[in-house]
Amino acid sequence: MTGIDNGLGLGIGLNAGVNNYDKIVMRFRNSKIYGESPAPDCPQNGQGGYCFKFEKCGLMSAISITKTKPIHPDKPSPKPYHKPKSYGVWGATALYENMEFINWYPNTQTGARQTVLCLNPKASDYIPPHQFNNTKFNKVQPSAMAYIKSPDPAWANLKDCIEFPCTAPLNILFDFQNTKYSGSSLNHGAKF
User: Fold this and answer.
1) 99 has which bridge partners?
2) CA-atom Rg of the chain in angstroms
3) 87-146 pLDDT tens trace
4) CB of 140 within 8 A of CB of 184?
5) Domain residue extents for the chain
6) What are the residues facing 117 on neighbouring strands?
7) What is the pTM of this model?
8) 137: CB partners within 8 A, 6+ apart
9) Which of 14, 34, 145, 157 pairs as cysteine with 4 (C-beta 3.0–4.6 A)?
10) Residue 103, H or E segment
């Protein structure tokens, strides 16, 4: 898969069913994800046309939950497709193999934040470990690597996470093995 100039980022999700601790593996492989393209976000210098001034991300964190929307929706949903409908599954792992991230800078031409990795903004209770193998970072500035937001205080509700915000954004692991960054190899795994 090739992603170019993404808004929210490419991501994977899995309906794992009801058994929370089964070993479940999601795979994403052999893909190239490019940062902002030469196509302007504000055509005609923002005069009289559409202007995209939102944050951009290349790869949104994966989720594995007990119940999802159908893969091929048959009617519109009032909620974003990436919003979980149920609780996270603890036995899941996301594997990323032979990924390449190309031309990433910390800001877009309109000044919005732009990062290679970001979290699913709706995943409140669990984000599975993300294991990357044979990843290439080609022309990626260090400050454009990842954006990890804090838990949303609105997640603190009696129905879901009782008296404190669900803490998925504070409990994440991105593990990189056999990584090449701007042509230089790392001899050990990098963790964020």
Assistant:
1) 31
2) 18
3) 677 888 999 999 999 999 999 888 889 999 999 888 887 889 999 999 999 999 999 999
4) no
5) 2-191
6) 59, 146
7) 0.81
8) 100, 101, 104, 116, 145, 179, 180, 181, 182
9) 34
10) strand 92-104
